[in-house]
Amino acid sequence: MKKVLIANRGEIARRVIRTLHRLNIESVAVYSDADANAPFVLEADEAVHIGASPSAESYLVQDRILEAAKATGADGIHPGYGFLSENSEFSEKVKAAGITFIGPSAHAMELMGDKLSAKQAVKEFDVPLVPGIDKAVSDFDEALDVAKKIGFPVLIKASAGGGGKGMRLVEREEDLIEQMQLAQSEARSSFGDDAVFVEKFVTKPRHIEIQVFADSHGNTVHLFERECSIQRRHQKVIEEAPSAVLTPEIREKMGQAAINVAKACNYEGAGTVEFLIDADLNFYFLEMNTRLQVEHPVTEEITGLDLVEWQIRVARGEELPLKQEEIKMKGHAVEVRVYAEDALNNFAPDIGTLRRYRKPSFDWVRVDDAFEEGMEIPIYYDPMIAKLVTYGEDRAQSIERMIKAIDNYEISGLRTTLDFGKYVMKHNAFTSGNFDTNFVKHYFEVPSVMKGAQKEEEKALIAGINKIWDRLKEREKEEFAVQPVR
């Protein structure tokens, strides 16, 4: 593989380009109108314009991406995450064009992309499942019968869903019909498929995922877990590795279960097996993401491995670089996703211009970002500015370093989730490890709590602003002072 096209944008495109450059593989970027001057476009060896700003007219247009690959002579395509990364039709087209798709097979994508088919596949490998039904239901009486058997509360979930779409919590029998109709409607509009199923709602759930890798030679390994329980709108905001609650015994069992999931679909490449864990540390298979994850940096930090490099090696037909017993975990890493969002306004997008943008620069901090000072955050895509990652010898140190990194990350011109990240880092529920996916609901439903926690910082900020203002006034006096006539 001598030249790889990245069918994506932003920070993940930059991330892939870095590894390609290190491996002496040429890189090709594709870009929309909105991204014409983006850093990833300038950093690639070649760049091809593929359309207007909306993703439906650029990053999701399969034929234009394939045309760009052919025109530049790319012999590999890395899909990143999002957009076409889990599109089986696209991977088949790439293969038919004689280009290597750096990801799993279309069969694995299709099998794991549908939650019901995934449940049925992994059941044969003794992977624990959340109590419920593993087939689509459309009849309300049947859904009610299942709900009564497993007991309320239950979840109605879209079979083809993700990101919390097409999912409804039902706590009472009388609400089932209405919530099922809402879930079906949302699933139909979001995924073109209104199939839903019913499963038990796990109380105090933690969201823990296992990174897996498999090659074409029959080797499959796991690279330990990531804790992803701090979420808003069912989407992750903060991740860490390893989890604060897993024992070595549970970690080993979950790792083996994740490997079994990969084997259930003859998987190749990087994948992530997601589990729910209840208050008693029982774990249940949730789904498999057939791509690299946004939060992969925390795994890289604790293992010292380059997951993009592993993807490329597997795609070239090589064996995995390490066997399971050779993969070691050291230290602790935390990641805060820096979104252009107003955490005090229900995390609403706050698109604008990065008037000031200064990243923290410490040996133990990593920033995977997409923008530079003066750039606008486009309205067309996910509003993530960067991923801020800190590494420490243990969890306490990585959290302490994250607070320092946030304090030294200067962003003005729009609101971000940095303050929320700091609030979480300093909250007793997080530092103690006693939290679940309801953190925002339990501790952040009234955002004024964060304002209260920041009173000292606000005072310091006001004092700093006043000092700057005084300096400006002094400078103004000097500049406009009457000069003696010579």
Describe, in short, the structure shown.
With 486 residues, this protein is of the alpha+beta class. The protein has 17 helices and 20 strands. Helix 4 (88-96) packs antiparallel against helix 5 (106-113) and helix 12 runs antiparallel to helix 13 (418-426).
Topology:
Elements (H helix, E strand, L loop, with lengths): L2 E4 L3 H13 L3 E7 L6 H5 L2 E6 L10 H11 L3 E3 L9 H9 L3 E2 L4 H8 L1 H9 L16 H11 L3 E5 L8 E4 L5 H16 L4 E5 L5 E9 L5 E13 L2 E7 L6 H17 L4 E9 L5 E7 L6 H8 L3 H9 L16 E8 L1 E2 L5 E2 L6 E3 L6 E5 L14 E9 L2 H13 L2 E3 L5 H9 L1 H5 L6 H5 L4 H6 L1 H25 L7
Organism: Lishizhenia tianjinensis
InterPro entries: ATP-grasp, BC-like_N, Biotin_carboxylase_complex, Biotin_carboxylation_dom, Biotin_COase_C, CPAse_ATP-bd, PreATP-grasp_dom_sf, Rudment_hybrid_motif
GO molecular function, one term: ligase activity
